[in-house]
Amino acid sequence: MASNHSIEQRTIPGGYLLCELQPLLAAWAAYRRKQLSFLDLRIYLAMHEVVHRRRAGASAQTWHERRSVRVVENAAIEELLILTRCMRRSRVTGAVARLERLGFIERDGGNVGLPAAGIVLPRELGALAQRMVQQLAPRSFLPFPRRLLRYLAGNASAAALAVVIAQLARCVYVQENESFSTLGSCSVERIARAFELHPRTVKAMRHALLMSGWLTRCAAELWHEQRYGARFAVNLSWPPASPERPPPAAQPSRRFAPPQGTGPLADSGNQQPVGRPLGAKLGQRQQRSARLRHLVPDDLRSPLRLNELHAQAVDAGWITMSEADQLRFFASARHACRVGTRNPGGLFVATVRGNRWHLLTLTEEEWARRALRRVDAGAPTPDKIADQPNMLLTELVTLVAGSLSLSKSSERAKVRTADAVPKKNWAVSEHPAVSSSTAITSNASISDSTLSASAA
Predict the structure, then answer these.
(1) Which residue, among 178, 164, 128, 167, has the nearest Cα to 22 in the 3D structure?
(2) Of 225, 386, 247, 368, nearest to 307 (Cα)?
(3) DSSP letter (8 states) at residue 275
(4) How does pLDDT run across 280-332, given as a tens digit for each residue?
(5) Triad 406, 409, 414: Cα angle to 5°
(6) 112-133: per-residue pLDDT in tens?
(7) Strands 111-113 and 183-186
(8) Packed helices 146-154 and 158-171: angle between N→C axes, nearest 10 degrees
(9) Which residues constitute the domain of residue 363?
């Protein structure tokens, strides 16, 4: 961590150029509003480098005169292709047309360049850029190192570009003696609010810049960090100039060595066979831990792996730690192995996360009980447990089937008995009252005939 005194730098290796801060922020606002792509934003950044290369006698001209430099469009597009590392010329041409339509680039016949009389932004973009300037730093120009600008135009991401512009606006200033002050404070919330980024994105990108050496954390008091943010020093010499590499040496052609002789191979009679093969056996796979994110059928058949998966499912919030849910979890695994033919793992996850317990059968729950008993006992558990018939269920089914067969046989016996009894006058004896009255009438007639016979 560097000291808290002001860090000055006399010169910037590779030079620098003054960029207007408000147009840069307006281009970012247009990118966030989907009016420009990120390639358009990088091409606008690279356009500053293209124009700066054409400024002859910069020390003898004012800034407004240097800004009026124009570049031939074809030559500018060729340089933009190199700076942005874009492979298609049509994309660069379309980006230049979009930037011209919004006012960031000015065209004069066959030449292009930055606006000479100042950029005229649309009302919405101008208001957004003005708000961003007030949130970051109320300044007009930004000293931008040329090496850093070329690096951002060709390699950087959107978050890196935003954090770099914010740190330059808050830390780098040109002093009266033409030296550069590189010390400043900037908070994550300020950058996230100005560039409409997530604070985590800003933290990650600033950490990456710290690791690369472009930023250095400086000591600051606690009240200062809470009010203004952490204090950083910017390394204006980053990135270092890439040294010119010599051309690669010619590689000799590969040739196979000729055989040393044509005699027979060495005798292997003195070699003793090894008792067991060295290394891992063929077909032996290394044990892997079970994971819910990557299920294989063997995970659903092994009780020990199912126990690991159950703990992961509880941590993920899919099920609770109750014994009922644990039993359903194991039964769902057996159901997925038995029913699922194409994707057992997907069926298992859908059953557990959707609480589709109505799909489980008694046989699957019995398998789950036996698996849980083996896991709880702590005994050596086999990788797979074969299905066994449920004896209680089998006895119940046998008892019900026997009772049904007995009832059917009794009904058949009754029917046979009824068929064996001789048929009577069903019209008379069908109703008990009618049969009794008929019997009384017949008895009365018999008694009358008897009396008449005796009297005679």
Answers:
(1) 128
(2) 368
(3) S
(4) 444 445 566 788 888 888 888 888 888 888 888 888 888 888 888 889 999 99
(5) 125
(6) 888 876 777 888 888 999 999 9
(7) unpaired
(8) 160
(9) 297-377
